[in-house]
Each structure stands twice: as C-alpha cells, then as structure tokens.
Amino acid sequence: MWKTMIVDDEYDIREGLKSSGIWAANGFTVTGAYANGIEALHAYATDKPDMVVTDIKMPGMDGLALAKRIRETDNETVILIISGYNHFEYARSSLRYGVEDYVLKPVDFDEFAKILKKVSKQLEIRRMKNSGFDEEIAKTVLCMDENDCLKKILAHIQTHIRQRLLLAELAEEFHFHPFYLGQLIKSHTGHSFNEYLNLLRIQKAKQLLENSHLKIEDISQLVGYRYKDHFYRKFRELVGDSPNEYRNRIKGVASQ
Fold it and tell me: In whole angstroms, what is the distance from residue 144 CA to residue 241 CA?
C-alpha cells in the first residue's frame, strides 16, 4: 500500500477524506491527517508518505508553502492539491512545486479515484525503475500483469460457476483490492461482477436445458444456485421465460 497524508484545516473535510474507502480501494493507506502545513511538515519525516494531499488556504502554513518546503528536500513525493479556490493563479503557482494535480471541492470521488489510480501506477513504475527496470519496460510489465491476471480471473469464474464465488475472495486470491477488481471486470465485460456471474450461470443453464434431460432443480445446482427460487427468478429476469417455458419452447422448435 502507498502511504499518503491529508492536510486540511476543515475538520469535517479532513476526517471525511481520512475515513473514505477510496484510499484502500486504490492502493493507499492514510498515515495521518493534519490541520495545517506546520503540523504536516513536523510529521512528514516520520510518516514518510508517498503522496501528500493538501488544501491550499490554511492558517500557519498554507498548502503552497508546504509543497515548497517538501520540494526543498524531496522531488519524488507526489503532491495533490484539493481546494475550493478555482483560480488560475493558485493552480499555476502549485505547478512550480511539482504538484501532480489540482482537485476542486466538493470532491468528485469518481474523478478523484481516477487520479489516485493514475498516481498509484506512477508510483509503481517509479519503484520498478528504482529496482533497475527501464521505464517503458516497467509500464509494459504493469499492463501485461494486470491483463494477464484479469484473464486468469475471468477464466476461473467461467470454470467454477458451480461453486460459491465472492468478489472479495477472488480479490484476495489474486491480490487485488475488491473495489479495483470490480472496476477491472466491469471495464472488460461491461458488467459488474454479480451481473457477469449471473449471465454466465444462466447461459450455462440454457445449454443444459437445451441438451439434457436433467431436472430443473439439478440444473440450478450445477450452475451455482443453491436455491431454486433464486434460479427461477434470475432466469426469467435475463431470458424472459421460466426454465420450463424455455425448455419447452426450444424442444418444440427442434421437433418441428
């Protein structure tokens, strides 16, 4: 997990950000939350964050002064500005201190998640470069690793639909955060994890209804539904017929 510190003089915003699940979902952990730049600078050497998320306007030492002090000794820590001040001069000033991005309050968490995901990849590429990897190789390895893992996960789902499958357990097994894995699955398949799983199960059920004489209850179990009523409900929702109606319709067409 990448370490981040939050700096904001508004208690509700500071604690709200700190307690948000957005950090862990994108590979970060919050080492501390501070009310101004002075507090943050004192804790900086101890926390050793990979990223600092700071407001601009604060008493004592503002966010720009904090960014300047950090850059005097550290050019690698990522700095994000979160502020209610939508002024070009603030944004331009922050660029002098190598600020990665400038986010307006109230924070759009969907957009913020995209920024955190981007920063996480940048930090991983930097880590790989520091370990001796060429930057382009590092980028390629990251992309290949993510794609290869996703292919394995989707194949695992397809071959284990009879079993109890939970996103959290798959994420743990393949070393992803559940929220991030859910996003990857949706971006690749167009469906959430549960939607994708139900589609696979109902598709398999249709094949069994078409090509076997198994009882509906048995088919329900074979495709991963523990309760027949749940299977009937999902089947009608996705197909438009009950399993019996579907089988009769398909068999009737085949016999003509």
Answer: 41
Q: Is the pLDDT of residue 90 over 70?
A: no
Q: Are residues 126 and 13 in the same domain?
A: yes
Question: 29 and 125 share a domain?
Answer: yes
**Cβ-Cβ contacts under 8 Å for 203 (sequence gap 6 or more):** none
CATH number at residue 208: 1.10.10.60
170 and 230 in a single domain? The answer is: no
Note whether 113 and 132 are within 8 A (CB).
no
Burial of 65 (0-12, 13-18, 19+ CB in 10 A): middle
The mean of the pLDDT values for the chain is 88
pLDDT at residue number 192: 94
User: Strand 51-54 vs strand 2-7: parallel, antiparallel, or unpaired?
Assistant: parallel
State the pairing for strand pair 2-7/99-104: unpaired
Q: Look at residues 43, 110, 108, 96 and name the one whose alpha carbon lies nearest to residue 65.
A: 96
For residue 107, the 8-state DSSP code is P
Q: What is the CATH classification number for the domain harbouring 51?
A: 3.40.50.2300
pLDDT one-digit tens code per residue, 193-230: 999 999 999 999 999 999 999 999 999 999 999 999 99
Give CA–CA dist 246/236, Å, rounded.
9
CB neighbours of residue 167 within 10 Å = 17
Give me the domain span that covers residue 242: 194-255
Closest CA to 55 of 13, 12, 2: 13
Q: Which residue has the tokens 């249709």?
A: 206
Q: How many residues does the chain have?
A: 256
Does position 103 have pLDDT exceeding 80, yes or no? yes
